[in-house]
Amino acid sequence: MPEMVSAHRRIRDIKSERGVEALTKGMGWTAYNARRLGEAREILLEMVGDGSHNFMGLAGALVPGGLRGIIVEVIRKRWFDVVVSTGANITHDLTMAFGARHFQIEGQRSDPSLRAKGLCRIYDLCASDKGFVALERGVGKILRGIPPGQYASYELLDRIGAGLRDRGSILKAAHENDVRILVPALTDSILGFQVWMFSQFHDVRLDPFRDLEYIVNLQFDLKAKKAKTGTMILGGGVPKNYILQSSLFAEKPLDYAIQITTDRPDSGGLSGATLEEAKSWGKVSRKARTCTVYCDATIALPILVSSIGKH
Fold this sequence. Notes:
Structural class: alpha/beta
Number of strands: 11
Number of helices: 13
Strand content: 15-25%
Largest sheet: 6 strands, parallel
């Protein structure tokens, strides 16, 4: 007697397509991570289309890697209401806002030779020390116009975003579209270091507990409204945990969850932890639509956003 399997959809051979939407839809009928990317598209499409209150997590060197424009695009479309990021991504966003650029490294270059030229390597790209000097000057000028007080990271970053001229900036887009940017570990970045240096001589100080108060209260408010909530997490780390722990504390599990990661679950690290595991904590609803795509975010995110870009 043949073995019975609970297969519901027949595998279809993928075909070349003229458009990324049709291509990604076709990938959903295949297997492995192509299938996962197609499934993530369907979840993201539903998540941004049904009034869900959505959180985006940004970890890894996404901005210097070329994803700044895509992130700005989804912020301007209000696909996400809150962005939780590492300090590094916002630091690089600001260096670019003040004129710095990142460059591909070609050929074999020794790291000591790059250091001698004032270049900092991130895998196969580099940033210049000059960008961080411009960051110090530009941010310092904006901070000097901020009234004394204790600030959450999202409050401080909103004021910095308001002071930027570069409309291609993540912080500028967030300010103009009323999207909160939270950086819980801001001190773990060059931007955080600059804010700390400024605070030694001016009464403008970072209070990370105000971020925690904001996101937890938001989750309780969403729970009271019986609103749907969703997240798309790129990478993992602090942004992933910060989003998930707020849903846990408020007992408001997420209704949608997508993560794009290259980390494995069997090492026990959070960045590779499955969304099914998150259900055991009550961070993600047992009935939630979830998908983990094991892929470099610089590949997956542009494909996902482009495949539903018209929405």
